[in-house]
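2024-03-11 09:14:02 INFO worker-7 job=invfold-0412 stage=load source=structure_tokens
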């Protein structure tokens, strides 16, 4: 290996001359020679230059050096390079390989990258799981970024209440006033989506309090909606009498004031003789009463018809609900319960909300043990009946392969709870591994793990790493 070319390339990299660094580091090794430190740093330089496919090839060459050891960091950078070049499938494979490295400590970076790939693919549930895993990683120095992204996923999934909690938690971890203003604005949008207008108004007022943050058009529209809704509830004036007088033509511009007999409003009250009241005959009064009576009867019949229609609609709705219950439908659906059970195992939350109360503690433990962590679940089919159902699903395991499961559910109220989970051994999966990672998506080239084994390169955000032991 050409040590002089390597040292010169390293110096160029540290000085921000990434083009020269990439050239010199590429010349540091002979054809067929493997030196991971040079290829790792060269990949980082190429990422800075936006040459993502070349960067991916450099990281692959570095991975061939088994003595280098930084498998997690290299696979994370490889996943980012592939995602930036448009290869989302390859990116997911590389990032899952990074998570499989037990010595890799910056797993939150991999989770963030994986989350952004899934988000780019529109797989918001998988993206949310990865963002949450990144947020709870104790090595993550800024969990607020992951929590805000998690809130965005919840909004896309139509779960504004969960988004509210994600944004509130992000506020606990964010420090700068600017970043808090942005989170408050997104919190306001979530409150509006949840129809909690007063809280939305408070959040938007926090966001705009010092005038340094400008709401985007969507946030401004939500802010205006919250203001109008709160004003409609708290700013009403007048009462029923005012409304009646207004409908009769009093109180408006140019109308007659019944309390102004002298006409101080600018209009004189008409004379009684001009109203025709004193010249009306008894026959006219009788005819007017008949017409009024006919109108009242018509209105009464209309009310009866409306009542009958309402009753018919309610009966039809009840019949439809009964038929759906008999056919095995409910809320939440069997598919949602199964997906949430697998999601809870990945998230590390309590699975008891999805398991039937009749299941014993031993059975519950067996169910939790058989569930993989971090798998992406696809429901293949549902066999429904009024009291029990069976769901066939396939879990895509993070280390590759898949495993089929058969989940048995029992009716509970209008919904369903799990009573048993079994492996389907005709699957072509890596069954029985029991390990996985959550999913997510990544910004192209952002926040790469930097590093070389012997030298001390910077991370790709341009910050020098002064301690070689801290390089990724």
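2024-03-11 09:14:09 INFO worker-7 stage=emit residues=472
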């Amino acid at each position: 290996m050409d040590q002089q070319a390597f040292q010169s390339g390293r110096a160029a990299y540290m000085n921000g001359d990434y083009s020269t660094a990439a050239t010199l580091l590429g010349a540091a090794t002979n054809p067929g020679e493997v030196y991971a430190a040079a290829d790792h740093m060269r990949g980082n330089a190429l990422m800075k230059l936006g040459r993502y496919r070349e960067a991916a090839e450099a990281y692959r060459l570095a991975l061939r050096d088994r003595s280098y050891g930084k498998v997690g960091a290299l696979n994370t950078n490889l996943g980012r390079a592939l995602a930036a070049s448009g290869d989302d499938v390859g990116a997911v494979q590389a990032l899952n390989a990074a998570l499989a490295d037990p010595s890799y400590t910056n797993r939150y970076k991999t989770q963030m990258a994986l989350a952004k790939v899934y988000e780019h693919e529109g797989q918001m549930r998988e993206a949310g799981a990865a963002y949450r895993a990144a947020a709870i990683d104790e090595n993550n120095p800024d969990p607020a970024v992951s929590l805000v992204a998690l809130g965005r996923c919840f909004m896309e999934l139509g779960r504004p209440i969960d988004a509210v909690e994600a944004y509130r938690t992000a506020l606990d971890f964010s420090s700068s006033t600017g970043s808090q203003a942005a989170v408050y604005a997104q919190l306001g949008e979530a409150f509006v989506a949840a129809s909690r207008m007063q809280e939305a108004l408070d959040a938007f007022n926090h966001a705009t309090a010092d005038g340094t943050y400008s709401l985007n058009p969507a946030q401004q529209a939500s802010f205006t909606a919250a203001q109008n809704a709160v004003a409609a509830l708290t700013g009403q004036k007048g009462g029923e009498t005012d409304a009646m007088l207004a409908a009769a033509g009093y109180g408006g511009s140019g109308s007659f004031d019944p309390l102004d007999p002298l006409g101080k409003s600018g209009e004189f009250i008409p004379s009684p003789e001009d109203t025709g009241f004193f010249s009306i005959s008894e026959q006219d009064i009788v005819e007017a009463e008949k017409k009024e009576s006919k109108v009242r009867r018509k209105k009464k019949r209309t009310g009866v018809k409306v009542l009958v229609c309402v009753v018919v609609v309610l009966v039809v709705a009840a019949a439809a609900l009964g038929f759906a219950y008999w056919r095995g439908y409910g809320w939440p659906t069997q598919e949602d319960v199964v997906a949430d059970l697998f999601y809870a195992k990945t998230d590390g939350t309590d699975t008891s909300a999805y398991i039937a109360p009749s299941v014993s503690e031993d059975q519950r433990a067996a169910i939790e043990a058989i569930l993989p962590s971090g798998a992406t679940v696809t429901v293949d089919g549902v066999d429904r009946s009024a009291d029990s159902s069976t769901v066939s699903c396939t879990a895509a395991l993070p280390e590759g392969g898949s495993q089929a499961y058969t989940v048995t559910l029992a009716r509970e109220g209008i919904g369903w709870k799990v009573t048993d989970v079994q492996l389907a051994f005709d699957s072509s999966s890596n069954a029985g591994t029991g390990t996985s990672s959550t999913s997510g998506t990544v910004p192209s080239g952002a926040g790469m793990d930097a590093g070389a084994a012997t030298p001390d390169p910077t991370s790709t955000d341009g910050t020098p790493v002064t301690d070689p032991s801290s390089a990724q």
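2024-03-11 09:14:09 INFO worker-7 stage=report msg="Residues 282-326 form the longest helix (45 residues)."
2024-03-11 09:14:10 INFO worker-7 job finished
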